[in-house]
Design brief:
- The protein has 282 residues and is α+β, with helices and mostly antiparallel strands.
- The chain has three domains: 83 residues, no CATH class; 58 residues, no CATH class; 92 residues, Chitinase A, domain 3 (Roll).
- It is 47% helix and 14% strand.
- The strands form two sheets. It has a four-stranded antiparallel sheet, with helices on both faces. The chain has a two-stranded antiparallel ribbon with strand order 1-2.
- The longest helix has 24 residues.
- The protein is elongated and about 90 Å long.
- The relative contact order is 0.10.
């Protein structure tokens, strides 16, 4: 398959020989920055090229990027002008696919840009939170050690009156040890299953027998429990607006596809393995 030219060589050279770019009056997307055999290269072409660069190259100094990108576009234009004959299918079909994809993307952007009404936002909030069962949340501390023998000894020490937080500071190997083993508040799904199951079966103020997880052996103290409340609408507004827009996009895709005259009958009976015949594109 054909490989597109990269910006690597041009940017490497530009980094060594970059010069300040001459100032222009009110440049814009249609501003012509170079011509190659009467073919114009504009700032718009350069902006698109820059936007498709890997992130590490976008961090290069502006003057280096400007010269490197312009050099690349000049080289590509000169090479394109030198081509004679008909373009192979891999090129013409790639152009068609890219045009289709970019145009579809613009249609999606149009839907995503639509305002989300207060009614739509409230409906999304109600669907997610109004009838949701309140979840129990836990505030717990733990002491993490490598072996069951160590955990048994720690449990016996705490049952004998030792302060849980002080033992955690002294003996826990977990990152919460220096803080007395405190894990703060957490809800369902935030801890590994064995740990969560043990906590869910405890009474506030109690200390568990040793519990094994993939991290080691835990001695757990359940400090408090509470019933989690649904967040205020304003606290989740941005998240809900995104959900509403994504739903609109999916609905638009389904509606437009259903309304279009689509005939897939020509694809029936074709062996799916033909998609491996990339030599057809040469």
């Amino acid at each position: 398959m054909q490989k597109p030219l990269t910006f690597l060589s041009s940017l490497a050279l530009a980094a060594a020989v970059a010069l300040p770019v001459a100032a222009q009056d009110e440049p814009g997307v249609d501003t012509v920055v170079a011509t190659v055999n009467d073919t114009e290269i504009t700032l718009g072409h350069m902006l698109v090229a820059r936007a498709t660069l890997p992130q590490q190259y976008q961090q290069l100094p502006d003057d280096v990027l400007f010269k490197g990108i312009l050099d690349q576009l000049v080289q590509q234009t000169a090479l394109a002008d030198s081509f004679t004959g008909e373009l192979p299918p891999r090129v013409t079909l790639s152009i068609e696919n890219e045009t289709r994809s970019l145009t579809a993307g613009e249609a999606i952007e149009g839907v995503m840009a639509e305002d989300v009404s207060d009614e739509e936002l409230q409906a999304a909030y109600d669907a997610q939170y109004k009838d949701a069962e309140p979840e129990q949340e836990f505030n717990a501390s733990h002491i993490l050690v490598e072996t069951k023998e160590e955990a048994d000894a720690i449990k016996a020490e705490i049952d004998g009156g030792a302060d849980f937080a002080e033992v955690a500071k002294e003996k826990s190997t977990g990152p919460s040890g220096p803080g007395g083993g405190s894990l703060g508040w957490f809800g369902p799904g935030m801890m590994v299953p064995a740990f969560e199951e043990a906590v869910a079966g405890m009474e506030a103020g109690s200390v568990s027998d040793p519990v094994e997880t993939q991290f080691g052996w835990h001695v757990i103290k359940l400090n408090e429990t509470r019933t989690g409340e649904a967040p205020a609408l304003e606290d989740v507004r941005e998240e809900l607006e995104t959900q509403v827009r994504q739903t609109k996009v999916q609905e638009a895709i389904e509606s437009l596809t259903e309304a279009a005259e689509v005939d897939r009958s020509a694809a029936e009976g074709i062996d799916p393995t033909v998609l491996k015949n990339t030599e057809w594109l040469n």
